[in-house]
Amino acid sequence: TGYLPDSCTNGIPTSTGYKLIGFNPGSDSTVFIDNNNGEGLVQGIEYCYMILASYKDGTPGYPSIEVCDVLVPGTPAILQTSVSTLDADGEILISWAKPIGLDTLPGPFEYILFRSDLDALGSNLNQIHSFTTSDLNDTSYVDTLLNTLNYPYSYKLDLYHDEPDNRFLIGRQEVVSSTWLEIEGWANTNLIQVRKNTPWVNDEFIIYRQNPISLLFDSIGHSKETFYLDEQLKNGEEYCYRVKTIGRRNVNNVHYEAINLSHTGCGTPLDTIPPCPPELTAESLCDSSYNFLVWTNPNNSCAVDVVKYNLYYSPIMDASVQLIDSTLSPNDTSYYHFLPESLAGCYAVTAVDSFNNESNFSIVACVDNCIDYKLPNVFTPNNDGRNDMFVPSNYAYVERVDMKIYNRWGSLVYETEDPDINWDGKRMNSNQLVPPGVYYYVCDVYENRLTGLEVRNIVGFVYVFTEVDAVNNGE
Predict the structure, then answer these.
(1) What's the rounded mean pLDDT across residues 164-182?
(2) What pTM, to 2 d.p., does this model score?
């Protein structure tokens, strides 16, 4: 790694990739044998080490300078697990570098190849092939009858000295997998991720996408990273890919090229990002008894595929709004809300795109009831068919009233809870018209408002005008 410790940093940072493999007690214990806990190390691979001393209280000191070396050569180094053909009965090419350093060891030798199906970690290895060679020049094998369309396979290669009465394991290659792809669909984009379990370093990845007509894989780009974004795709349509990895492997100071083709991977771009919320305004039209809502179309500013809007409503302030309706066109950006009991309410609107992603609520817009309960200041209960009753002007959304009417001496002459009042000028509980003159009223009006049922108090005067004949007739 080339790590050089900072003078203020004790220990070995985990970012270096180093892992603790052993501990020697005592300051005089200065020898350690690394045999991978008895499992053995892979031959022909370079290993690097750092030694760290600790104080008695466990405080780590500074690490040693990094030292590296290659284990005694002799193990075949796998370079390819390349998918040759894509089929339910496909093929994978396994090839490896000829072991070096065995010139003084007479043959014959035997290769034994193991495979783990549908698995990249070698968790279920079984022998699939073996052959004897005298010169080690045969360094490839084509594994057939595999489902290479989607699934990874992993391999391990053993090399034995196969002389009669002198058979022993020379070396064992680590588990190496074929390369497969994971595709994650985004909005108009597929994220292609290269997955592998290989010992070589990949420097470049060539990305291929399948032509839906010819079914051939065409090159669409390259990457230095293990991922690639294929953009400007059509949402909801499946795309399939392969990747060629171009890598290298250094074994015993010999540089080898490692070029491999992956399995296929398919993915469908899906829009999971909701549109931005519309901007909403609301207005009460009292004379027409409805609320009028208008909002903006996000397709004109921050979205491309809004298809409808959801409308939400609450009759009172500071309550959760509930869905009441939807408009089924992105260009339908207004709504008439007729309410039989109260115009008071709060509204929100959301935009829904073609993948049913719903935006956040718009800013909630509230409207209150119109204050339209008004009383006249004169009426003429003379039975002429005009203005004979003391009633309010046209009104709406009043639940009840508490009306009390007094004469000039403070005597109660009429009371009711009927919002229409309907006073005919007669004293209550009698058929006697009150004398003409000015009367004083106190009225509590119970109205449905944004905050719920509210009481509004109104006071005023009403002049009762009666003709003498009308009075006499009334008597």
Answers:
(1) 89
(2) 0.57
